[in-house]
Design a protein that fits this description.
Layout: H1 4-17, E1 26-31, E2 34-41, H2 44-55, E3 62-69, H3 79-93, H4 95-98, E4 101-106, E5 109-116, H5 119-130, E6 137-140, E7 143-144, H6 154-162, E8 172-177, E9 180-187, H7 190-201, E10 208-211, E11 214-215
Parallel strand pairs: 2-3, 5-6, 5-7, 9-10, 9-11
Antiparallel strand pairs: 1-2, 4-5, 8-9
Helix pairs in contact: 1-2
Length: about 220
């Protein structure tokens, strides 16, 4: 297992590797697999890039993210301008979703509401907002309401997870109750945990995924 210092250094180096980020802006501490990120950045996308870089590091079991977004005065936009830019971006990139999503902007913080049939669409809407200048934070309250009533087969989800080479599916347990999928077991990285959850969400008819997978990194013995 990595020492606290080794894990801290690995996360710092992962952040340095991201071209959008200035590593000096972001503080990293690590203790027993829990990584904390602090600091101030000038855009929301930088905050997300730092978080995603840390999640991909082997040995990160949990992430505490306290990065603050402080927008330069020259970048400040009023709520109407931000909302209009989001609408234009959605209509350009996801025209079928634009009319199904409600956007609220208050003090540069965006709240997304509405119902969509697929989880990937919820993620796509949020990712679109990530790149809008002047956004300080996002609350994604979009709910999933599937259009199909087909029964959900546990075996189908297990097979989908096992065929993804990014995920070590040996120790993942899938259970299904109605339209809810619960994932338990262990994987070696936070990224694998999120990828398993993403795959489960792609199942037709899913309304909720409870991702209870734990991250337990144990290096191979030579």
């Amino acid at each position: 297992m990595k020492t606290n210092q080794e894990l801290q250094t690995d996360v710092q180096n992962a952040i340095k590797w991201e071209p959008l980020l200035n590593a000096a802006e972001i503080g990293v501490t690590a203790k027993d697999g829990v990584v904390s990120l602090t600091g101030v950045v000038d855009s929301y996308i930088k905050k997300m890039e730092a978080e995603n870089a840390a999640k991909k590091v082997i040995g990160v079991k949990a992430l505490v993210e306290k990065i603050e977004v402080k927008l330069p005065s020259t970048w400040t936009k009023n709520s109407t301008d931000i909302a209009n830019e989001i609408l234009v971006a959605l209509k350009t990139n996801w025209p079928l979703l634009a009319d199904k999503v409600t956007i609220k902007v208050e003090d540069s913080w965006v709240t997304l509401d509405g119902e969509l049939p697929w989880y990937y669409q919820k993620v796509a809407v949020k990712n679109t907002v990530d790149f809008i200048g002047g956004v300080r934070g996002i609350t994604n309250s979009i709910t999933i309401r599937p259009e199909t009533n087909d029964s959900i087969e546990q075996k189908d989800i297990e097979t989908a997870i096992s065929r993804n080479w990014l995920v070590d599916a040996q120790n993942i347990v899938v259970s299904v109750s109605g339209a809810t999928v619960t994932l338990t077991g262990t994987v070696h990285s936070w990224y694998q945990k999120e990828e398993a959850g993403r795959i489960a969400w792609n199942t037709p008819g899913i309304m909720h995924v409870s991702n209870e997978i734990t991250v337990d990194y144990q290096p191979r013995q030579s």
